[in-house]
Amino acid sequence: MTAPDSLAVLVSRAQEGEQDAWDAIVERFLPLVGAIARRHRLSPADGDDVGQTVWLRLVEHLGELREPAALPGWIRTTARHECLRLLAARGRTRVVDPQAGGLDTVTDDLTDAELLAAERRQALRDALAELPEGRRELLLLLLVDPPLAYEEISRRLGIPIGSIGPTRARAFAQLRDTAALRSLGPDHTGDPS
Amino acid sequence: MTAWDDMTDDQLLAELREAVAEVDQVTDRQREAARAAFTWRTVDAELAELLHDSALESTAVRGADDAARTLSFVSGPITLEVEIDGDTVMGQVVGAAAESVLMQRSIADDYPLPVDPSGFFRIEGVAPGPVRFVVQAGDWTLTSPWVAI
User: How many domains does chain B have?
Assistant: First the structure.
């Protein structure tokens, strides 16, 4: 995984035409674009088309992008926009009934909450990438489902069983303190109101 | 959901698990297509402005959902009107005499569209996916933004 604080570097290098920088940007945000397409209930083929359109549009706009920090928001907004657009083109939008306005509003709020949740998961992936390798490895082993025994984690990481608990606590503290989670901040607590 | 500091380590771990699981849902096909998009990078390309896309209008404005989708783009004196009806794409170049209309697909060869003296063109059997149009008319070129059809 690429360290999130290098997004500015990646954008700048991609603007210079470096394919590997572009690939790294793509790798980082593909899960976000895919998640947004799935939540709009597009067919897998249409979801792929929306994703591809988002990347093509980013290529078009890459030269104008002055603030790399705006990139995640741009990708999220564009993905959502292109999903709604293709749904409309397929004739699958809900018919807007003024009498059912309240219901419509509820549905839109739910979508906002889901988008916010997708953004939180993006921040968590970025945060994970910011951690030192040892801590990241530990967290990745801890989230294996079904859970691994501490003996197994100890064996894989070559650390004493007794140190897993304290290291786990430090890894979470460090995760909360990453730029990725700090920058998402209290405005993104998942409450759309 | 709560702010990060208000979450327990276990809650954070659960959300982290969902976040990492999303990475596994990315397909090779998506990855390859996204990487390949970069080959379309052009420096100093000026894109036509999207004037209208019926898919961006409310149902009330655009009428029945089964109506053909219409789009129009403008660049300098050239206006490109496009209508998409199923797998048929037709359109007209207005404002300048079109010498050529090229339909570009993201992962296929360019497709030159025969254009008549009035600027009309029509093609059938167009597969879904991102598309853009490049119109040449004298000294003017119109390149549309990418649109998923």
Answer: 2
Q: CB–CB of A59 and B31 under 8 A?
A: no
Residue B111 CB-half CA count within 13 A: 18
Q: Which domain holds residue B19?
A: 4-39
Q: Are residues B20 and B89 in the same domain?
A: no
Interface test with chain A among B38, B40, B83, B107, by most A beta carbons within 10 Å: B38
Span B98-125, pLDDT tens digits: 999 999 998 888 899 999 999 999 999 9
The amino acid present at A26, given as its one-letter code, is V
> Are the beta carbons of A91 and B13 separated by less than 8 Å?
no
Alpha helices (H) in chain B, listed in sequence order: 9-24, 28-36, 59-62
ipTM: 0.91
Question: In which domain, by residue range, is A166 found?
Answer: 132-177
Per-residue pLDDT, A176: 95
- Structural domain count of chain A: 2
What CATH number has the domain bearing residue A104? Answer: 1.10.1740.10
Residue A67 corresponds to which tokens in the numbers above? 């603030």
Flag whether A162 is in a domain.
Answer: yes
